[in-house]
Amino acid sequence: MRLGFVVERLLQLVPVLLGVSLVVFLMITLTPGDPVEIMLGNERATPEQAESLRREMGLDLPPHERFVKFVRNALTGNFGRSFFHRRPVAEVIAERLPATMELTIVSMLIALALSIPLGVLAAVKRGSILDRIATVASLIGVSMPGFWLGIMLILLFAVHLGWMPVSGRVDFSHEVPRITGMILLDSLIQGRVDTFLDALHHIIMPAVTLGLAMAALLMRVTRASMIEVLQQDYILFAEAKGLGRARLLMRHALKNALIPTVTVAALETGYLLGGNTIVETVFGWPGLARVIVEGIFSRDYPLVQAGVLVIAVIYVSVNFLADVLYTLLNPRVKL
Amino acid sequence: MSTPALGAANEAGQESILVINLRKFRRDRFAVVSAVTVVIFILMAVFAPLVTPHDPYDTDLLRRLQPPVWREGGEWSYPLGCDALGRDLLSRIIYGARISIFIGVAVVLLATVVGTLAGLAAGFLGGIVDAVISRIVDTLLGFPYLIFAIGLMGMMGPGLENIILALVYKEWTISCRVIRGETLAARELEYVEAARAVGASKAHIMTREILPNVLSPLIVVATTRMATIIILEASLSFLGLGVQPPLASWGSMVSDGRAFLLEAWWVSTFPGIAIFLLVVSINVASQGLRDAFDPRLR
Amino acid sequence: MTASAAPVEPLLSIRDLEAHFQTQVGLVKAVDGVDIDIFPGECAGVVGESGSGKSVTFLSVLGLVRPPGWIAGGSIRFDGRELTALTRRELRRVRGKEIAMTFQDALTSLNPALTVGSQILEVLREHTPADGARPAEAQALEMLSLVGIPEPAIRMRQYPHEFSGGMRQRIMIAIALACRPKLLIADEPTSALDVTIQAQVLDLLMALRHRLGMTVVLITHDLGLVAEYCTRVIVMYAGQVVEQGPTRSVIDDPAHPYTRGLIGSIPRLSRLGEKIRPIEGQVPELVRLADECRFRARCPVAEARCGARIPMSDLGGGREARCVRPGGRR
Prior knowledge:
The structure holds three protein chains of three kinds. The radius of gyration of chain A is 24 Å and the shape is globular. In chain A, a hairpin with a 4-residue loop joins strand 1 and strand 2. In chain A, helix 5 crosses helix 14 and helix 12 packs across helix 13. In chain A, 44% of the residues are buried. Chain A has a domain of 191 residues: MetI-like fold. Chain A is mainly α. Helix content of chain A is 75%, strand content 1%. Chain B has one domain: MetI-like fold. Chain B starts with 16 loop residues before the first helix and ends in a 5-residue tail after the last helix. The N terminus of chain C is likely disordered. Chain C contains eleven helices and twelve strands. The radius of gyration of chain C is 20 Å and the shape is globular. Chain C is α/β, with parallel strands linked by helices. In chain C, the strands form two sheets. Chain C has an eight-stranded mixed sheet with strand order 6-7-8-3-9-10-12-11, with helices on both faces. Chains A and C meet through helix 10 and helix 11 of A and helix 2, strand 6, helix 4 and helix 7 of C.
């Protein structure tokens, strides 16, 4: 029964992934101009070289065959060669993706850590000064453009106060051998506390910049759902049982109130992934999102295509996982 | 629980819903202040050539990175200081409002029209039409917004029309989903059934019976989205994928200032404040609209 | 229990209770000067329409009136203690342990995200922390089988939605009675159930009352249930008690026109051949009430004297009514 549900959802994933691939494919295909010429650019290339590149990229095939080839290649991780980096695109992505993932995960953790306690407090003390402050803060949070917030943080905490590094993931002196590519994780695995702390120091500002708007949004969601839950009969009944305030809130209310929060958090992962382009640019974070932006300026189409596809697939997968987990963990959903 | 029976008097039965809603909105002081701020921004944008002290494109290298008026070296005729090419920041910010608001309005309008048509078609016609439209929407939802827009901008190249197109390509899915849902709900309502029973055409039912009733949620969604679009446009411009120089966009102005953060913080700071002010005002005003228009969301 | 000459100390004694709600249309006095005594061992029925203040009165006893409502005055004495004077912590020790309360809809009253077992265990652990985990488990199992849940050890691990409506109501009763409270307040315990299940649940409740030596307050809008299960009846209307007394004599000879109307509107209680008449009109708005009988606008026998504040009059035999001419007598 449960396995059937997972398989069914997996099958629903197929058309979405195909659609996503098609859109990415079309992005390149519909680009005006001859990609080969654009890529060769100023370099003097013989017609033979151009022709071989054309064949290599499959541009000599009719469109539908090109799409099939594109999907087949994508499935095997063959995204062609990056024109700018002069090596396989898959390699560039494998190198840069962990930094983006690390930043996204830490931002999400910061967003959850800020929004849940604040949202719960605001709901419990509804109408109080604290509630109003939280509401105003969340309004400010969702209205602040991330790139500007990042620059202001750099200006204040890095330039003026000198508390924080301006950019990068870790100091050269602290570099550790790569295992997962996520420095926070790698340094922990290898027991390098100094590296871990240094990496943490580096990630705080970018992660806060990226996570703040998310925190603001999730706080609103948590507050609203908590208010709703607190009015439910089961809270009254639990109170009539003589349970203490903490138990009432943590066990009875929060467990139900967090369902919408987690759902929205999963849905808005896309916001974090997209926001990475900004934050990685502002903080010189060597991640995949920045590579995509750079790829556009260097007209590195295979890299842009693969990067956009990989991020879209990650996003779709996160939503799929959240959906499956939600259904399996929620006792109320009957399968 | 027994709640006391409160027969709320319904004196307002005669007035149109719109008037009642607007009156409710007027009572929300923050929302009114914010709405006024938004209007000021709009007026500023429309009458930019009349209200700016200087030509925003006029470079004057003698005034390179001139500080704002309250700092040493500042002067009243350049109240917010100048950028690296000696252009008046205030004038550029006022002209930047044109870009932001124009793109915001254009994207939301276009996307709402497209999304509404698609949503009505999907919700009301159902079947294969619904399947195709829903599939397209699902696919587009698979992309993080900014990544999608960046990809499109990369392909289409920078420029005002391309920004609008890149954002509309994804934005329409939002109103489409809202309208589709509302339409599915409205289909079941009695007056729609009645219209169908007396043989009204599908087109008639869609435009005359359903559309007026989904207008309220549409207005609420559209205003909220405006704020998001303005931030997205600024983000694209910040990355260099938006409108091109010399056009003044808030996002690119912040980006320009990054190189001089140490000597001239104001170049990045003030355009950012402008974005923030406009977006906060739109958000508060649309929250007020939402409270007034849509009792379900309160 | 019939009212006897020997004064019995009430278990619960409510005096001059006022519970108010601040609403957009004004201050609502949902409970306005209520006096109720509940005697040890009895099963008292509290009847009234929704909005009569019957639920709010007993929520007040447990200090569970939620904002925008609050207890505006009065005294609630339980087992020798003044509940309104207790601190929050002290009151918590009364809730669930000495006075328990169940609500109308067990589906919404049980937490959907927690297993039934954990919901019964937590009340046991809350009030008997010293016993440790093992005895609480045993008590929970015993309680569940006491209310007639088959295979309680398996059922403990299930969630509320996996039970039928009647079973859920039994579980709620098991949770309420887990700590063997002296007083159980059952608020509309069967309104959400099918008629056939209703009787089962109420019979169970009465069996448990005898077995555990509990006092029960049955809050309901159904005078028929009260007639069947309660020794004494308290009739509430628009935030006030309008009549109380031994069930038999109140039903045979109702003193207040509202009680008469209630009886007349219930097929089981009206005499054969008599027409069933619903009470005309509606419960008055509880805002800006004038000093007059609250039933006046709907009363078939209202007269000029009803335009003043009506006190409760003692009719003898443990009976009281808030009417200028109780029972239609002059």
